[in-house]
Design a protein that fits this description.
CATH superfamily of the domain at 14-243: Aldolase class I
CATH topology of the domain at 14-243: TIM Barrel
Oligomer: single chain
Largest sheet: 7 strands, parallel
CATH class of the domain at 14-243: Alpha Beta
Number of strands: 16
Strand content: 5-15%
Number of helices: 21
CATH architecture of the domain at 14-243: Alpha-Beta Barrel
């Protein structure tokens, strides 16, 4: 993990930041890379301007778990950090008061360095100053406060034989393991310096750790990953290599000059003293099976080449080739939501009610959209104000990170190649699928017309749940689906979708992910048990109120719905920290005539629960709920945001500010243009 004292990029916090504080350490570890806790800046010398602006921040190293960290943690949380981890080690004791103080200021977890789980090895590795009893007491104290633990285990020649045991025993007592960090280090000799060792001898122990972590659904990553020519794992996952795809300036081996993966391999100079490895030779990737480290790096080379071709060609919009959207109430398959394709084009798009998903994905309408985009004449198929033509995400250059499985890799490569060639009828399968399995919902929300439309269309069984043939097709598509976005209706009312999400097991589909939009009423323990292994990244929970009275009004009569949903959200937050993708929970609030005055209290509620927020300006004017049809009302909403919301935001997560700014932009734009019609 490299030191990154960062600032926000374009106003957006970076994903991870690191603070090094050099106040010394009570351990005397034989492998310490932090100069016995003296590597970094002193407490007194760190200014607020130096602190990183990132979503996840780790504070290293040595004896930094002290009371005077509190104000700095609070500053980082106020600046947008959703989680702050503080370094801890086996020499610490009597930490309960300190933990309480730092938790009060916003600390969310510990970065626990654990060199061994046997007394003898612990004593050797720490100079006799680290103790298993203190470690157990520290973990117990963290568990009591529901602190997450990022477990860093040094991989050292003397202790590598105990690696599996160390990780296994630690996971047995850690309540909320956030990740496992394996860090290859060498012991230091006063005369010779760092002592080189054959790190390839660790492969069996590391692979055993991978299997333990897979069973416990805990992600594993390398800090300063060994290159694949030195350590070739047979069960490697992309998450092991956080820097995969970025080439470093260091070329410590002669083999680097002819290695096929040098362009995507970042090698730490710490590995320069190792024996000279053999260079990796390029092979036919289509014949490359398995999940070895070498295979992952070779596949990344291919994806990086395709990314460069994408940058040179820069398609106007990726979605007609990548995305399958099927949450239209009629089941019509299009490349995007929001009604951006022209009506005369969507008339040529087909519904999954009449055919299979893939057949509908290659309908005449879909082919017409691909044709116009490939010919750079998007106006022939899409509305001129589509975000894709104004810098929206549809035209962004994708990261193209390597997948773990060959089937996913092959489909991504084919999909990109067909996109760059402008192919209209695709052999590749969609990378993302957005789908509504049912149009049923226990609520009848004032801003939603789904029940009215369903009844108008005959309310047949196809609107209640997806048919078996569609379930079977979605199941067949899971190995090539990078993102499955499930919406509704209320998707959890679909028995078949719950079965599908249960089958979408992260251990079977390591490259897949999902999002779920729900009203939260059905998120009880049985449903959460069904979703325990599903790689859900985001839960969107529609709330739209801060008390039972408002919930009943907005939802069309659901009594005590607010109380039930909040209880389910709390239960979801407890379950989410042990789900494979550690999903975020986002509470949604549609700002409308009935509830706009509750927006400040909604933000307070979400912040107290520890969720994100999504603020949606109401569309249409169903039941007179639009706030955009009267200037006086819209100015009232604007004043409320300026007076009551904006002063709250400095002490709330960065995402709250972003959502508020987007809402303000819509409101101020309408007032400036003097437009008094519904969105």
């Amino acid at each position: 993990m490299a030191q990154t004292i960062t600032t926000a990029s374009h106003g957006v916090p970076s994903e991870e930041g690191l603070v090094r504080i050099g106040e010394g350490c009570s351990l005397d570890c034989t492998f310490c890379p932090h100069s016995r806790g003296r590597s970094g800046t002193g407490f007194a010398d760190i200014t607020e301007e130096q602190l990183p602006v990132a979503r996840r921040i780790t504070i290293l190293a040595g004896d930094v778990l002290t009371l005077n960290l509190g104000p700095k943690i609070r500053h980082m949380r106020n600046a947008g950090a959703s989680s702050v981890y503080v370094y801890a080690h086996p020499g610490l004791q009597n930490v309960e008061d300190t933990l309480d103080h730092l938790v009060k200021h916003g600390m969310t977890g510990l970065h626990l360095m654990l060199p061994a789980a046997s007394r003898e090895m612990m004593a050797r590795m720490t100079g006799g100053l680290g103790f298993l009893g203190r470690t157990a007491a520290l973990i117990k104290a963290a568990n009591k406060r529901d602190l997450k633990i990022a477990l860093e285990v040094p991989v050292v020649e003397a202790s590598v034989g105990e690696l599996e045991d160390t990780v296994g025993r630690a996971l047995n007592i850690i309540k909320l393991p956030e990740r496992i960090i394996l860090r290859y280090l060498s012991e230091f000799d006063p005369a010779q310096g760092a002592l080189p060792w054959d790190i390839s001898s660790s492969v069996n122990q590391v692979q055993a750790v991978m299997e333990i972590a897979k069973e416990r659904m805990v992600p594993v990553t390398f800090s300063d990953a060994p290159p694949p020519c030195v350590l070739n794992m047979t069960n490697a996952l992309p998450g092991l290599y956080p820097n995969l795809g970025r080439a470093g300036s260091e070329r410590p081996f002669v083999a680097c000059q002819s290695c096929a993966v040098a362009s995507v391999c970042m090698v730490s100079p710490r590995f320069a003293k190792l024996n000279e490895p053999e260079p990796i030779i390029a092979t036919d990737l289509r014949q490359s099976e398995g999940q070895s480290s070498v295979a992952l790096f070779l596949r990344q080379v291919k994806l990086t080449e395709l990314k460069e071709q994408f940058k040179a060609q820069r398609p106007i919009c990726r979605f007609p080739w990548e995305a399958l959207e099927a949450h239209d109430i009629r089941g019509v398959v299009t490349p995007c939501a929001g009604g951006w394709p022209l009506p005369e084009i969507t008339q040529g798009c087909e519904s999954w009610h009449n055919m299979g998903l893939l057949e509908a994905w290659n309908s005449p309408g879909m082919q017409a959209i691909r044709r116009s985009i490939a010919m750079r004449r998007p106006q022939e198929s899409c509305k001129a104000d589509c975000p894709a033509f104004h810098g929206g995400p549809q035209s962004n250059i994708p990261a193209y990170k390597v997948p773990a499985t060959k089937v996913m890799f092959d489909n991504i490569v084919l999909n990109i190649e067909e996109m760059l060639a402008g192919v209209e009828e695709l052999r590749s399968k969609p990378q993302t699928i957005s789908f509504s399995p049912t149009l049923r919902c226990p609520n009848e929300c004032r801003m939603c017309d789904i029940h009215k439309v369903r009844k108008f269309m005959g309310d047949g069984p196809e609107f209640a749940d997806m048919p078996d043939r569609l379930y079977d097709e979605l199941l067949e598509l899971l190995p090539t689906t990078r993102m499955l976005a499930v919406t509704g209706g209320e998707p959890l009312m679909s028995r078949r979708m719950r079965e599908l999400l249960h089958e979408f097991d992260a251990t079977k589909f390591p490259d897949g992910a999902a999002t779920l939009t729900t009203n939260g009423l059905l998120l009880g323990r049985p449903v959460l048990r069904d979703l325990a292994k599903t790689p859900i990244q985001l839960f969107y929970v529609s709330l739209n109120a801060v008390d039972d009275e408002m919930y009943e009004l907005v939802s069309g009569g659901t009594k005590r719905g607010f109380t039930k949903v909040v209880a389910n959200v709390k239960r979801l937050l407890e379950a989410a920290v042990l789900m494979p993708s550690r999903p975020s929970v986002i509470l949604s609030f549609v700002v409308q005539r009935s509830n706009w005055m509750q927006l400040p209290a909604f933000l307070d509620l979400a912040n107290s629960l520890g969720t994100g927020v999504r603020l949606l300006p109401i569309e249409r004017d169903r039941l007179g709920e639009s706030i955009f049809t009267e200037e006086a009302l819209l100015r009232q909403v604007l004043t409320m945001i300026q007076v009551e919301v904006l002063p709250r935001l400095p002490k709330m997560p960065w995402g709250y500010r972003n959502e508020t700014q987007k809402l303000l932009s819509v409101i101020e734009g309408r007032l400036e243009r003097q437009i008094w019609t519904p969105l």
